Backbone:
């Protein structure tokens, strides 16, 4: 990595792409797919160690989704679990030397946040129809302003929270490595450990907020 | 640092592909497995219940059969005992009849022997009497007179003396 925040840009069909971000995204995807494949191969009726863990996660996730969203939420389970795994692996990828987190790019985080918010609105319209639009105007028509700001703020906060945390973490790793002499690794190691923690926390926060937004539109009327 | 470009769309696409792959690769098999297990457990429980019912029915059937077999055995034993009793009574009666028959035969034999002995005695007595009479009278009377005299004597003798003769 050269200058912090400088990105190598590839031009393709008149569109610019951040090369490192996309390569790292593919790496993260490969890791996630590999882990999933290893964890879920050779499934048996009577489970063994790994299968037990995977099943525990799926059953727990189903329990959470059933409690938050009702039966209709089940179809979102793969989306939510993929989101969490992808974010976790992405956040941790930047902690490995010479690699970078895909989530240190606002394009990634904003893309995911917009995807979640679009999904929220599409599902809201699909399940509640005009009632969904009407609820932005309640209790008075003037509330549309506040609701609009809230809806716009959602993806921005989602995206910038993750982006800021991860980018700051990576910058600080570089800064610490350059500031502190090579025989004094303790601050860098401490920060690295803290970054592992931050990676988990940010993945959890992003996933939980996304599920909360989704649960608002997916859960049945009588469920509230 | 914050430059939004086509990478954003690429990332959305990438993530959607990842969701599709994970759904196909990991989520569906795991959920399928969970469902299959739930179904298997439910069917196993049902089967166990049915087996239990069938076992109870079989047990009841066997107990019934055992009871009826015992009853039949009891009946057979009773019949055999009755038969043995009849048989014994019959054989006792047969033996009694045989004994009676033998007694009767013996009595008849004795009677016959007695009659024979009396007859023999009479004949001998006639001969002796003839000899004695011949010697006493010293003359021979006609055979016809002889026989009638002796016959009378014998008959008298038979009535008076032989009548008391015990067998």
Residues:
């Amino acid at each position: 990595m050269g200058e912090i925040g400088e990105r190598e840009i590839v031009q393709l069909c008149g569109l610019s792409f951040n090369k490192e971000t996309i390569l790292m995204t593919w790496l993260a995807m490969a890791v996630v797919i590999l882990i999933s494949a290893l964890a879920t191969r050779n499934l048996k009726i009577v489970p063994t160690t790994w299968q037990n863990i995977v099943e525990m996660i799926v059953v727990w996730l189903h329990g959470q989704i059933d409690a938050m969203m009702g039966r209709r939420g089940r179809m979102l389970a793969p989306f939510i679990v993929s989101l969490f795994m992808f974010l976790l692996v992405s956040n941790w990828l930047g902690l490995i030397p010479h690699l970078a987190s895909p989530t240190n790019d606002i394009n990634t985080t904003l893309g995911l946040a917009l995807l979640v918010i679009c999904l929220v609105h599409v599902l809201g319209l699909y399940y509640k129809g005009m009632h969904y639009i009407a609820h932005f105007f309640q209790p008075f028509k003037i509330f549309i302003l506040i609701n609009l700001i809230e809806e716009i703020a959602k993806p921005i906060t989602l995206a910038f929270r993750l982006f800021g945390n991860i980018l700051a973490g990576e910058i600080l790793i570089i800064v610490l490595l350059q500031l502190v002499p090579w025989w004094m690794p303790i601050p860098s190691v401490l920060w690295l450990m803290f970054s592992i923690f931050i990676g988990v926390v940010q993945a959890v926060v992003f996933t939980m907020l996304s599920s909360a937004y989704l649960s608002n539109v997916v859960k049945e009327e009588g469920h509230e | 640092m914050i430059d939004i470009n086509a990478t954003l769309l690429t990332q959305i696409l990438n993530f959607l592909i990842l969701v599709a792959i994970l759904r196909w690769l990991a989520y569906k098999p795991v959920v399928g497995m969970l469902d299959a297990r739930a179904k298997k457990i439910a069917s196993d429980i049902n089967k166990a219940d049915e087996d239990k019912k069938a076992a109870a029915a079989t047990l009841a059937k066997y107990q019934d059969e055992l009871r009826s077999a015992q009853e039949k055995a009891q009946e057979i034993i009773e019949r055999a005992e009755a038969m043995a009793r009849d048989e014994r009574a019959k054989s006792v009666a047969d033996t009694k009849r045989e004994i009676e028959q033998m007694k009767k035969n013996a009595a008849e034999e004795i009677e016959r022997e007695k009659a024979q002995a009396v007859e023999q005695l009479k004949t001998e007595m006639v001969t002796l009497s003839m000899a004695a009479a011949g010697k006493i009278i010293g003359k021979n009377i006609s055979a016809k007179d002889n026989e009638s005299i002796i016959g009378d004597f014998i008959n008298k003798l038979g009535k008076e003396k032989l009548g008391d003769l015990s067998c």
Chain B touches chain A through 32 residues (CB under 8 Å). Residues 51-164 of chain B form one domain. The CA atoms of residues 84 and 120 of chain B lie 53 Å apart. Chain B has a mean pLDDT of 87.
